[in-house]
Amino acid sequence: MKREKKKGVWYRLDNAGVLYTALQKEEYSSIYRFSAVMDQKVDPEALQRAVDRTMPRFPGFGVRVRRGMFWYYLEPNDAPGPFVKRDIANPCQPVRFREDNGWLVRFYYYERRISLEVFHALSDGAGALVFLRTLLAVYLRELGYEIPQGEGILNVDEPPRREELEDGYARWAGKKVLRSGPAPTAFPNTGTAEPFYTFNITMGFVPLDQLKDKAKRYGVSITEYLTGVLLKVIADNQAQKHPAHPRPVALAVPINLRPWFPSETLRNFILTVRPSIDPSLGEYTFEEILSQVRHYMRLHINRLEMRAMLTGNVKFQTNPLLQVIPLVLKNPVMALGYRMAGVRPYSGTYTNPGAFQVPPEMASHIEHMEVILGQATVPRVHCASISFGNTMEITFAGTLKETDTERAFFRFLVKDGLHVKVTSNRQGKPVEGG
To answer: Considering the entire predicted model, what is its pTM?
Structure first.
């Protein structure tokens, strides 16, 4: 589908988008995927019609990256597409700005699965889920089902609203910057890299009611419980492989800022917090790890501290010196800064965008949801989870040959009394539905 070019229209990248475009290279770019496994086999023609109808309602996703002298920027993409494709065994492939007609979103289908992949410079998970929810509603209508508006489903017959394109970081930046020293280097939890581009995915499916009950018994939230499990298994891994000089074990956990700073933006609006433990102090029990996580999350996830953090990020981007450094010099500097501040302090990433909510008329057509974070900048696995109905889906994905982390994680859940069903794509085909 070719769209009319909007002359003179362009979008400034938000604070997160600036970083993700600077990091993009031939073998890496920040991509994530959401999938809905439906109750019947996907009709690709109906899905393509749904994509064509939905894309104009979300102009922030219908863009291409352009390279300026000092910054990348986004402009409306009037090229044909994006086109629905049959799924591949290794998803979340790197974006190449001059390929695929410049599209930064992808749509795939496989049997009963519909997948959306997004370049992180465009949107965070919360924004992409609004897009996917709306797309699924339009797709079901194309099949003849009556799906109502509302409950997070946007009306594709209405024009986009300006608020959906706002830069939430710039809007809510204050004057106070959170001053803190560099975080210590964490245990990297890396291993043997797979050949380019082999992307290993392992998914676990857990009954949500069991998971809620288990977290409640420990006195924590589901996110805190799963964060604690991941910290525990990574710490155990370090104790087995590098017992003499233990480093901190820390996770990057993205936080959706919209509940604290009201915004209707569909672009990026997240910050990352760093729950951690220090094994050099001694061996933690699981209960002690959960206590560390619970108190850290509840102490640091607050409006004032988060505003000071986002203010610091915005001031870095708007630094007058940075403004006049040519892009060819700026990208390596930002990539080095990311490695120092965004990679070395962490042993991995865990994100949980929460429950995927849809109207009852729509829920009956969806079996479960899935989420995949794309590859890391180093060979390690990322962890992500999403729930729908009574199923929590948990994914480990990365370019790592070893399976130590995901095996230990799911074994821990089973030993802790949870029923887990596990599936993988290591046989060289798309992950089967859980």
So the answer is: 0.95
